[in-house]
Structures are given as C-alpha cells and as structure tokens.
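FOLDING PROBLEM:
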Amino acid sequence: MTATGTAQADEPNVQQRRRGAALEDAIREAAYAELTEVGYTAFSVEAVAARARTGKASIYRRWPTKQELVLDALLVTLPTAEQCGIGVTLDDSVTTVQALHQVARAIARVITSPAGDAMRAIKCEAAIDPALAQLVDARFQAPRREALLALLRRGVERGEVRPGAATQLVADVVPAVLTHRVILQREPLTEQDITAIIEQIFIPLVEVR
C-alpha cells in the first residue's frame, strides 16, 4: 500500500477520535473498570489510557495525579449526598429520626455496592497515602458530612436534636459504624441492623435530654 493509501486508511480513525466531554467520560469509565478489576494498588494510568484508547498525556492534562483520576472516576458512579437523602429540603412532616433511617439505608446500599467496595479499598490505602487521604476527605467525606450536619441542625431547630449534638464528630458516627460492620466485622447489613444502629447508637447520642 502506498503512503497515500495508508494515510487515507488511517484518516477515519483520526476523524472518529473522541474529544472534550466524550473523551473525559470514556476515561472515567475506563478508570472505574480498571479500579474495580485490579484495585487501587495495581491501578495505572497507562492501563486506563489503553482501555480508553487515548494517550497518557490526554489523561494527565485533565487529571494531574492518579489519586485525582481515581476519585473522579468513583464519584461519578457513587450517589451524591442529595441522592442519599441528605442535603435536600425535607418536608416538614419528615422527622429527624425518619430522615436518619433513610440516610442510613442509603449509606448501607452504597458501601455494599461494587463502587462502595472500591471506595472502601481506597480508604484503606489512604491510611498510608496522605495525598489520597486528603482528596478522599475533601471530595467524598466532607460534602456528605456537611449534609448530615445540616440535617442535625434542622433537628435542633425542630426541637428533635439537642444543640450540642450538631457537630462533625456526631455526623461521622453513622457512616463510621456502618462501614466498620461491613469492613472489619464482615457482616451483612440487614434492615434490622440499620434500625438497631440508629435506635441504639445514634438516637441516644443526639436526642434532647
């Protein structure tokens, strides 16, 4: 084949090259697939580039570090705080206890999902990776913590939560207990478990005394 013929044969591929949002979506999908298959430790930008059929330079222009790419890929698959029932405007008929039950169920669904498995693995890696730990907190935990705080403050205004309970430490309790049960105790989370966690641990912690 002549040089001209080769150029003509290659030209359709050039024309079909993804750009902009389409390329970014492809990279995120490839990164998520790589993460769920090989885990965070074996995760590499090179492998993601191969999956997405793009170059490493295209990835690094958008995500300067492996940590940022991993978090971005995960966060588009995980439900937002609003989708978990926190950070939204609740009807006046919804009590704080009812809202907390909804939140706990949503958190349980997330941490037992494939994306939740990946996030838990990343949190374990974050224990020895300060840059990753900072990103996980800033991009994943902090928005959800703030949304839970808003729910507790709403409870204070309604007289359903004691004022001293609307703190970051208290807001971290429900996710921490649920995650502890799944990761360390290797126990499934049933509806009865979720109810017990809310009623035996969280409600006594926040209720008006």
Remarks:
- Residues 96-206 form a domain with the Tetracycline Repressor; domain 2 fold (CATH 1.10.357.10).
